[in-house]
Structures are given as C-alpha cells and as structure tokens.
Please model this.
Amino acid sequence: MALCIRCNRCLEVCPYSSIKREGIGLTIGTPYVLAEAKACYLCMACCRLCPTGALDRELRHPDQARMGRAKIDTSLCYSHLFLEHDVLPRNSGEKIGAMCNTCYNVCPLQDKAIVLEKNLYPVILDGCVGCGICVERCPTRPKRAINVSPSGMGRVDEAGFYFRKARGHYDATIDPEIVAESKVLKGEKLLEKKSTIAGPNEQPEFKFPYDTPKALEGWE
Amino acid sequence: MMFRPFRRATQVGVFCLMFVVPVLNLYEIYSITGTFYAINVGGLGISDPVVILQAIFASGDLTLPILSAAIFPILLALLFGRIWCGWMCPYHLLSDAAFFLRKGIRAKFAAGGKIESFVVPNSFKANVFRFGFLVVGTMAAGVAGIPILNYFNAPGTVSTEVMILVKERCVSIEIGFIIILVCLELVFFPRFWCRLFCPTGSLISLFRNRFTLGVGAGLKPPRTPCCKENYCSNICPMGLAPFKEGNNLLCTNCGRCIDACRTHRLRFVGFQRDDV
Model:
C-alpha cells in the first residue's frame, strides 16, 4: 500500500478488467482486486509491470499469488445440502441441492486449492490463492455459497475496505423485485403486521417445501 | 528559429500518446504501458521523480528498481531543465489553453491590453512556496504511509483519466481536480498550479545546474529590459524576466521569450562548463 504509486499500470494491462480503482477517500485511485465482484484470472500480467514493487515482480506462476482464501458456506452450497438432506421425506417432491461441484470444476488450481472430499463435496485447501473464479461461477443466488476473504483481513471487523466493498456488491445483486415478491416483511411493516394480529385464531402463513395434506386418509 | 511550432507539436504529440497507449494495450500490445505517473517504454521504466520520492518516504525502503525508474527523468532534467513542463506535460497544454481563453475573454470584456499579473509576482517567493509545498507533501507522505502528493499530480491524473476513459468509457472523480484547476486558472489565478504548486515541476527544477540548457542574453545580461515593450517578461508563463532571470529554477525552457525577443539577444545557452 505504501509502495503503490497509483500509476494504474496494472489496471491498464489487466485483460479482464479485474482490477478496479478505489473511489473517494484517502486511498482514492488505488487499484484493487475484489475477487467477489470480478474474479482475477491469474494471468500474472500485472505483477511484472509494477514499477515500484508494490506487486511482487518475482511472481510468475498463478499458485504463487496470495490474494485471499475461499470459504464454503455449507448452509448454502448445493453439494453440501445434497448430502445433508439426502434422507428427506420421499413425498417432498423437491430435492434440496445437487451434485454441483462447479467450484471444483472451474478452479484453475484444481486439486491444489480445492479437492472433492470422498469425490462428493468440495473442500478448500491451503493452496487457494483467492482468485474468485469459483465465486463468479457459483450458482446459488442471491448469496454465493463460496466466498473469498482477502488475506490479512480474516475478521469482518478488520476487513474494513474490502468488507464494505463486498457488502455493497451483495446489496447490488439483490433484486428488489424478488424481495418484494417473496412478501417477507421487515422493519416497520413487520411491526404493523404483528400489531394487527387479532387473536389465536389467525394462522401465520408458512411456506412448506412440500404440500401439506388437507386430510389424512383412513382417519374419519 | 521559432520554437513555438515545435513545442506545440511535441505537446500535442504527448497528449495524443496518452490516448494511444491505452488503445494499444486494448489490442494487447504491451511494448509501451503506463500513465505519466510511471510509464514503461520497451522495458525502460520511467517514473515521475516525485512519485518515486513519495514511494521511498511512504514505504521507508530504498530499492534499486524504484530508483532506476527515476534515472531517465533526472537525466533529462540535468540536461534540459524543466523541459518536461514546458514541452510535454499534458496539464501544461490545458493550462496554455486556459490562459489563451482568459486572454481572449479579457480582451473582449475587461480593459484590453493590460498586462496580466500573477498571484505571487516575485519569482523568489514563488520558488519558496512551491518547494515548501513539495517538502510538506513529502513529509506528510512519510507520516501517513500513503503517497499523498500523488493525489495532487496534475499530469498523472490527466493521463490516468484518459486511460480510464479509453479502457472503461467513464471517468473517475479525480477529473474534478483537473476541472477545478483549469477553472481556477481561467477565472482567478492564471498559471498558478505550475508556478506555485506542481510538485513534479518543483523537483525536476532542482536538477538545473550551470551545464543545463537555459535562456541567456549574451555575455553581459542587461539589468533593465532592452526594449520598452518588455516582450520577453510579458510573455513568460512563469512570470520571470528572462533577460536577467534565464537561470531561474522556475524557467521551463519553453522558448516563448526567445520567440518574442525582437532584438534577438535571447537564445538557448548551456552544455558548457563555464558560465556564458
């Protein structure tokens, strides 16, 4: 950071526009990679061009880079869900999860950064460089099941700049129309709804993943 | 010989280069990359010396690759003085345009023919001010650990904005800095940035020595203007009196005074061991 002279040469040569510039603030104009927003494809073009050595010139191979580390959210990952919920009731009609493993398939450092544990579900190893290609390809929406935390910023409260960027990125991906359609009440509207509940006769609207039977057969 | 057409051609050429470099890079021709903070021409790294100074102070370490990038501009400054400012700097071209517009507007609306006076007319005070700005900025960079003066680098900002414009078809917030500078020069303080602030100009002018190219008026420079119109002093963009202050650190070797001199006494001197 101290060495970066914000000449933006790295940004200029980046063929994928993965490198962005910081906006208003003390670090204005400083280039950064936010793997969450746009993955780095590890072409290593920027490193050898940095005039001051803010990017290490000795880096030649993708596995030498250290931008961060991916983390899989097992409560969202299709592969993990598929395995956990394999014994769902037969009548559900809808199966949660799938044998997705997209992250494993797209990883440029396959079997170094990510492996398929028991050939079933992906697990991140220490070889992960935090390029964010898996985040880009992860099919879960609106939140991705795999995320990159930039190195040296493991804790959310310490992450600062990157955390704010990531949060802004998530806010941008959430489609307001979908939120409106799901009829999830929040804040003032939720309070209003709660205050109008008249008595115990009113039933809350639950959404089940399967059809609730109206009557049970054989019971009369 | 008139220097003006050559100077304008160089200025416009450098200005166009700012647009050409990102276009080449879009077509993956990387033989020339960078902005005017730091540019790389066929493997030769050239960086703004102020930027290098900032990086050294902010990071606290002195490495050879960093220093080597400043060699070419320092060599240029040792030989030709502030020639970067007068002949190449893209901001100086904008400043020239602002000054030209201002002159036109004044001729139309204000009392025509009156000579423009600069903010700090005294060249010594102007020098003290800009070197003070450079020193304070460098110290601030050392304290903060961030190259702060880079945020006030007009040529670097212009070229970065051009690069972003070509590459991403948008401009960032820093274009506001350039717009503010040009507007201030247009409305209130003509030429104030290059004379009183520009850190790059301050640093490279420090390399001026007796060997360096400069403006001279012969063996015995006159103490008073030779002609009553005082053409050279009136045209000098740095507010100097070229007939006696040809060696001033503010001088950008733009050659305007030489073009303006009717008596042909002013000319470029330099590259000699003993003073002319």
Summary: The mean pLDDT of chain B is 87. The longest helix of chain B spans residues 4-26. The two ends of chain B are 21 Å apart (CA to CA).
